[in-house]
Amino acid sequence: MSDNQNDTNTDTESSIIPEGFNESGYAPFSKHIGPFVYKKETDSEGNVQGSVGVVMTDTHIGGNNRGHGGLMLTILDEAMGMTAALQKGGQPVVTLSMHSNFIAGTTPGQFLRATGTITQTTATVAFVEGKAWCGDTLVGSASGVWKYLRKRDK
C-alpha cells in the first residue's frame, strides 16, 4: 500500500469519528486493538459519562464477516469502566462482572461507539449500564459492576 493510500484511509477514518473524541488512551491494549478514541461528557445534573469509539476496519472482523464480538465486549468494558472511574475523579477500577447482549452486527467502515451510565455507586463499587451503537443502530448493551481500587504510588 502506498503512502497516499494510507493517508486516504486515515482521512476517511477520522472523518467518521464524531466531534469530541480523541486518542488520549488509557492502556496499551486499547491502542493495539483499536486504536480507541475517548470522550468525556458531563450532563446538566453533573453526571459524568465516558464514551469510547473505534473505526471498524478489516482487522476487527470475525469469521462471519461481521465485527468480532470480543471487540464489542472490550469497547463496552472500556466505556463502562471509564464512566465508573470518572465518577470518582479518575479512581482506578477493575471489572468484577459484566453481562452483555449482542443485538446487531457491525461491518468495516462504521464507527462503533459505546457509552457508560452509572446506575448506582457505593464506597467500593459502581453499577454501570452500557450501550454500543453504529450510527443510529443499537448493536449491543451491557450491565456490570466495577470495583474501585486504591491509587498506586508512582
Write a structural description.
The chain is of the alpha+beta class. The protein is built from three helices and six strands. It has a single domain (3-148), classed as Hotdog Thioesterase (Thiol Ester Dehydrase, Chain A, Roll), CATH 3.10.129.10. It has a six-stranded antiparallel beta sheet with strand order 1-2-4-5-6-3, covered by helices on one side. The radius of gyration is 16 Å and the shape is globular. 31% of the residues are buried.
Sheet with the most strands, sense and barrel status: 6 strands, antiparallel
Radius of gyration: 16 Å
Distance between the termini: 42 Å
Provide the succession of SSEs. Answer: HHEEHEEEE
Unreliable segments of 5+ consecutive residues: 1-10
Number of domains: 1
Q: Please state the average pLDDT score.
A: 86
What is the CATH architecture term?
Roll
What percent of the residues sit in helical stretches (DSSP H or I)? Answer: 10-25%
Which strand order spans the largest sheet, edge to edge or round the barrel? 1-2-4-5-6-3
CATH class: Alpha Beta
DSSP E strands, number: 6
